[in-house]
Specification:
The complex is a heterodimer of chains A (433) and B (190). Chain A has 433 residues and is mainly α. Helix content of chain A is 61%, strand content 1%. Chain A has a two-stranded antiparallel sheet. Chain B contains three helices and nine strands, in the order H-H-E-E-E-H-E-E-E-E-E-E. Chain B has a three-stranded antiparallel β-sheet with strand order 1-9-8, with no helix packed on it. Classes of the chains: A mainly alpha (433), B alpha+beta (190).
Chain lengths: 433, 190
């Protein structure tokens, strides 16, 4: 994929002048116009483009919000109300940013599930996948830091609970956990000092994500896109140029996605938030039921599922290890899956395991929103086991015992049937180019 | 030109010395950027706080803010004290007193969690040792958990009437801050 035909022709004198000095137009044309995309991509492949736009929406709206927001314990809560009530179009821009965080995670979860289903992490796309996991980690950090900024009760206590996770390191080296937590807080409790640094880092991280996205796309354009069959592209006829074909399809997916986005922004902007966050932060009162935003609930359920000590590891440290492992395990997926077949389309057993894994994640999300009582604790433990079993048992073992369905010989065959060549009618438009 | 044959020669030495110099320089430059995030001088200044206990009737409790942390002060009833003393013999999740005025290895008896002569007064840092929430149990109407002390709603930790962890995920008893009685009805925390 790295070597494909380039059709860029600078036409104007200005374009030629630039092309000899900084050929950025040539680079963009080669990567986003001529770039060959498999002809059988389905709508699950539109989320890469959607995610790029999500990132841009968050950065643009975020820069605007920072112009009106006050990152101090005394002013933060009120300045948010000021943005929502007084600033021109502040209500809309703030909603885009808050809802945008949720929509970003909707898209990224679908994008990750797509990768898991079609085996997009397998050679030669391991680095592409690992970079994606780092983007996911950076997104989680950014979302967590950003949620602190409204400085409501959920902000304050969410920060308290999550930063306190580090205190479990005291069990490994006494005092280390406390030192780290106080370093993060800049004091002996969460305070305005903490809010200030969270604002600074919340502004920084999206640009780190942007850099990682550039590397992610670079890696994608070296290996080329996977496709629903998981087969390698064998001939130029199995691809279409990115523009207009893939771009047009992306635009349709994006339109549908942003329709849902806009529906939340304009009709139920607070639906994905918590009423408690409309109470100003109070360090003396903890809300009765602290829950993170919906996109962290599966991981929160895993944190709380470890209610028992494991040898010398207390339940507290055990929960933290389990929660961190739940994300970090994604880094190892390319090496945990032993199957040589990429797409779940041709892997009957893996397909069942995959859909059970999807169910597991949804179930953990629901359990994470429930109080830490029975029977929720039991089911959290059950699905935490299922979550790790998917990666540590299903992925390595199924690849060894499963008999895959017969693979088509090529993408062309999977699209046009086993007749081999092109049926006269189907070839029509694209092949004339 | 014999120096070329020497091993290690002067150039090797210069490379090692130069790199070591640069590494130490880089490390000493990074440290201020890390340390600036630690608690500042204002936060570190150990503020002490005097609290008048006279208005707190038996069975009541108040919360004061000390170093940004809530401190629970509870005037325990006779029953609550008796229950705490009886539970000294129970199996405790955390066997240590966690009293910052006493050595680390002090056992978690009720007597070692309070000041001699003032046994009805329990003074605790009101932060759950699990993940830092504020346990319920200060107000009369609060749920006080299965052991009649405090109950943390975040992840379900139950504390008894001496502030000891009895059930739930919290690893340690509630901390007893350093404090002293200035008179029978006045304490100084910190």
């Amino acid at each position: 994929m790295a070597h494909h035909e380039l059709t860029y022709q600078p036409k104007s004198r200005m374009a030629k002048w630039w092309d000899e000095r900084l050929p950025i137009a040539r680079l963009m044309h080669g990567q986003f116009v001529d770039f060959p995309t498999p002809r059988n991509l389905n709508y699950m492949w539109t989320f890469g483009g959607i995610l790029t736009v999500c990132l841009i929406v968050q950065i643009v709206t975020g820069i605007v919000l920072a112009m009106h927001y006050q990152p101090s314990a005394a002013e933060a809560f009120n300045s948010l109300q000021h943005i929502k009530r007084d600033v021109n179009y502040g209500w809309m821009i703030q909603s885009f940013h808050a809802v945008g965080a949720s929509m970003f995670f909707v898209a990224v979860y679908l994008h990750i599930f797509r990768g898991l289903y079609y085996g997009s992490y397998k050679a030669p796309r391991e680095v592409l996948w690992v970079l994606g996991v780092f983007i996911f980690l950076a997104m989680m950090a950014t979302a967590f830091l950003g949620y602190a900024l409204p400085w409501g009760q959920m902000s304050f206590w969410g920060v308290t609970v999550i930063t306190n996770l580090f205190s479990s390191l005291n069990e490994i080296i006494p005092g280390m956990g406390t030192a780290i937590v106080e370093w993060l807080w800049g004091g002996y409790a969460v305070s305005g000092v903490t809010l200030n640094r969270f604002f600074s880092l919340h502004y920084l991280l999206p640009f780190v994500i942007f850099g990682l996205v550039v590397l992610h796309i670079w890696a994608l354009h070296v290996a080329g896109q996977n496709n629903p069959t998981g087969l390698d592209v064998k001939a130029k006829s199995e691809t279409v140029p990115m523009y207009p074909f893939a771009i047009a399809k992306d635009a349709v997916g994006m339109f549908a996605f942003f329709l849902v986005f806009a529906w939340f922004v304009f009709f139920m902007p607070d639906y994905l938030g918590h009423a408690d966050n409309y109470t100003p932060a109070n360090p003396l009162v903890t809300p009765p039921h602290i829950v993170p935003e919906w996109y962290f609930l599966p991981f929160y359920a895993i944190l709380r599922a470890i209610t028992f000590d494991i040898g010398p590891i207390s339940s507290k440290l055990g929960g933290v290890i389990a929660m961190i492992s739940a994300v970090v395990i994604l880094l190892f997926v390319p090496w945990l899956d032993t199957s040589r077949v990429r797409s779940a389309k041709y892997r009957p057993l893996y397909k069942i395991a995959f859909w059970f894994f999807v169910f597991t994640c949804v179930a953990l999300g629901w359990l994470g929103s429930k109080p830490a009582e029975q029977p929720y604790v039991f089911w959290s433990q059950f699905f935490t086991f299922a979550y790790f079993a998917f990666f540590l048992i299903a992925m390595p073992v199924l690849g060894l015992i499963e008999t895959p369905k017969p693979l088509p010989k090529s993408i062309t065959e999977s699209v046009f049937g086993s007749g081999g060549g092109m049926p006269a009618g189907a070839a029509a438009a694209p092949e004339k180019r | 030109m014999a120096s070329e044959a020497e091993d290690p020669n002067r150039r090797d030495f210069l490379v090692v010395a130069g790199n070591a110099f640069a590494a130490v320089g880089a490390a000493s430059l990074i440290w201020p950027f890390v340390a600036q995030m630690n608690p500042d001088a204002g936060a570190k200044a150990l503020a002490s706080l005097e609290v008048d206990l006279a208005p707190i009737k038996e069975g009541q409790a108040i919360t004061v803010l000390w170093r940004g942390k809530p401190v629970f002060i509870r005037n325990r009833t006779k029953e609550e004290r008796d229950k705490a003393i009886a539970d000294d013999k129970a199996v405790l999740q955390d066997p240590f007193a966690r009293n910052l005025s006493l050595p680390d290895s002090t056992p978690a008896t009720d007597a070692d969690r309070v000041k001699a002569g003032h046994e009805q007064w329990l003074v605790l840092v009101g932060i759950c040792t699990h993940l830092g929430c504020i346990p319920k149990g200060q107000s009369m109407s609060d749920t006080k958990g299965e052991f009649g002390g405090w109950f943390c709603p975040c992840h379900g930790s139950h504390y008894d009437t001496a502030g000891r962890i009895r059930k739930g995920p919290a690893p340690r008893n509630l901390d007893v801050p350093p404090y002293a009685f200035l008179s029978d009805s006045k304490i100084k925390i910190g």
